[in-house]
Amino acid sequence: MSGYVGKLLRVDLTTGRMTTEPIPAAVIRDYLGGRGLGAFLLFTEVPAGADPLGPENKVFFSTGPLSGTLFPGACKMDVAAKSPLNSGYGSSSIGGKLAAELKFAGFDAIVVEGMSREPVYLLVQDDHVELRDAGHLWGRGAMTTEQMLKEELGEEMQIATIGPAGENLVRYACIHHDVGRQAGRCGIGAVMGSKRLKAIAVYGTGSVSVADPAAFLEVSRQAFQAVKSAETHEQWVREGTTKTTEWVNGTGTLPTYNFQAGAFEQAPSLYADVARSYVVSDKGCYCCPSPCGKYTYAPRYDLHIEGPDYETVGMLGPNVGLDDWQALVKANWLCDELGLDTISAGATISWAMECQAKGLLDASLTDGLDLSWGSAEAIWTLLERIGHRDGWLGNLLAEGSKRAAEELGQGSIAWAIQHKGMEQSAYETHSATAMLLSYMTCDIGGHHGRAWAIWNDISMGRDKVSPEKVDKVIELQHIRPLFDCLGCCRFLWVELRLSFDQYVAALQAVTGVKRSYEDLMHISERAWNLTRLYWMREIPEFGAAFDAPPPRFVSEPATYGPTAGVFTPRASMEIMLADYYQKRGWDANGLPTHQTLDRLGLLELSPWR
Ligand code: SF4
Predict the structure, then answer these.
(1) How far is the CA of 230 from the centre of ligand 1 (A)?
(2) Ligand 1 center to residue 75 CA distance, Å?
(3) Among 228, 489, 492, 495, which is best to mutate for testing ligand 1, by the most ligand atoms less than 8 A from CB?
């Protein structure tokens, strides 16, 4: 089918064998590509109960049908694996130029399996594929490795690499690409590290087949014009996601001091105008007319990075009490070079800071490190220790906040702000019932990407418990992941107001197959339920208890800002969760019913049919 190459590259690191395989047309039909394809392959190929850091786990790099085309923002790839952070479904989206390059090289996906005895990197150059020694790269930072491989192989190579955190199996290690793009969440960098796969390098000279080039060019041209003429375009390109910081601080949804408060007195020193004053240039992904990447220089430390984006600002800024932009840039640089997810890293450090503030981590346990809120020195030192699993504390925090709290005990689990073992991203939810429901039910854990419902809380009444909010969360959980199936950046839809009809038209022009918005939503719902089945298969006791909110938001009032003194009654979230299950066609324990699986064509894959 046009839009797809129709084949994947399978790399067995144990044997060194590499093969190409067709991707069955039925899989493309039912799962579209990208995230859908990755979820299907993970479910069907990785055996139940596999050790996330063992040879049975696999890493799936999957593009979508629009990846690598000329549609605006057609740059995305999904990276899936069993997550070492929580042993559940792991998936993370990555932009830059990797997805397009893989299509140009002649593959829709790469499946990496087994485990190499020595460090290697994978070279894909059209149909030439090769595993090469990576001994000289092992131990190097992720950005350094990318640079070294570009010098070795050529600037046009697209590189995805891990840093020391991935090598050291830090459970929230990320995969780095294109200076500042990451597959950040779920610890898939550690899965690569466990396989001793330091990097993949891809270059291709082909192109993506398009069924109706004239129609496709026209819909793409219109989409480019719509994005460029959007009212929000200028601000988006100037500020990128840092435009969010002021808004969340004003609404009391900026995570502060480990989510104890929703606003930060010193937040203005981290606002977009401050960020912009350090920007050297704007930087975009493949085929993006609205570059949100900000290439930044911090003169005090002589450091260049791409970022910080809003999530990094929230989690390594107010949430750890830091109010110094250049110090934040250095923390971001350390995460990028070590190969750490900035969200989980910030959340785990903020948990440690709260533990020290409450007397659980004295100087004997921190090797004398003072973990006071806002200490840049403490944040940088902890990032280094985590990335290298240095000492007792570095090792503890490398496990993520939930495991660390279980180890430390003394009630500290109540301060680990996580869902299904993955740290909540940068929206404070003491009074934001839709966003809290979105986090509670997110298929990978505490991530905002599936349903950014905070806006609906503000517009619909933030502590309101309403069926409309539940409907909105479900709708968002279907529509937003669809972009990850298509291989496109959703920001152009969210921020630049590109109509979804244009994606429907582009998909038809590329593939030659007519699919309605409803058809696509059905595919997304199928993928959502498949990931639910994955959790059920991997964790026999999985059920509603795994969708419970962190106690902080339902029992402790926020301490500062517009929501000071407020928390959401636990009963409110129980009502919304029950409504959510019912609307999804799941039973009272949150498990898809036989009828739901049948409706979605998933019965065959269900171990409980
Ligand atoms: Fe990449 Fe940002 Fe453009 Fe999206 S909006 S494609 S993340 S540069």
Answers:
(1) 15
(2) 8
(3) 489
**218 is a domain residue:** no
Instruction: Give CA–CA dist 436/453, Å, rounded.
Output: 9
Residue 236 Cα: closest atom of ligand 1 = 5
Cα 214 to ligand 1 centre (Å)? 25
Q: Is the whole model's pTM more than 0.90, yes or no?
A: yes
Residue range of the domain that includes 353: 233-423
For residue 271, report the distance from its CA to the centre of ligand 1, in Å.
Answer: 20
Count CB neighbours of 565 within 10 A. 10
550 phi, psi to nearest 5 deg: -60, 135
Say how far apart CA 169 and CA 135 lie, in whole Å: 17
Boundary residue ending a domain (423, 455, 488): 423
Phi, psi (degrees; rounded to nearest 5) at 433: -65, -35
Which atom of ligand 1 is nearest to 284's Cα?
8
* 483, 488, 494, 498: CA torsion to nearest 10: -110
Going from the first residue of the chain to its last (609 residues), give the mean pLDDT of each consecutive group of 10, the final group possibly shorter: 96 98 97 98 98 98 98 98 98 98 98 98 98 98 98 98 98 97 97 98 98 98 97 96 97 98 98 98 97 97 97 98 98 98 98 98 95 98 98 98 98 98 98 98 95 94 95 97 97 93 98 97 98 97 98 98 96 98 98 97 83
The SS3 of residue 91 is: strand
Among 177, 232, 288, 295, name the best residue to mutate to test ligand 1's pocket (greatest count of ligand atoms within 8 A of Cβ).
288
Query: Could you read off the pLDDT of 517-571 as tens digits, one per residue?
Result: 999 999 999 999 999 999 999 999 999 999 999 999 999 999 999 999 999 999 9
CATH of the domain at 75: 3.60.9.10
Instruction: Evaluate whether residue 68 is within a structural domain.
Output: yes
Give whole-number Cα distances, 197 to 14, 76, 118, 161, 192, in Å.
11, 21, 9, 8, 5
The CATH number of the domain holding residue 396 is 1.10.569.10
Residue pLDDT, tens place only, 190-202? 999 999 999 999 9
Based on the domain organization, do 50 and 30 belong to the same domain? yes
Separation of 426 CA from ligand 1 center, angstroms?
A: 19
Which residues sit with their C-beta closer than 6 Å to ligand 1? 73, 75, 95, 284-285, 288, 290-293, 489, 491
CA 395–ligand 1 middle distance (angstroms): 34
Tokens of 475: 């709708």
Q: What are the structure tokens assigned to 470, written together? A: 């539940």
Question: Given 378, 403, 423, which residue is the final one in a domain?
Answer: 423
Main-chain dihedrals φ then ψ at residue 453, nearest 5 degrees: -100, 5
- Using CA positions, which residue lies closest to atom 1 of ligand 1? 285
Index of the ligand 1 atom closest to the CA of residue 76 = 6
Which CATH number fits the domain that encloses residue 537? 1.10.599.10
Q: What is the whole-number distance in angstroms between the Cα of residue 194 and the centre of ligand 1? A: 30
Residues 420, 254, 567, 375, CA torsion sign: positive
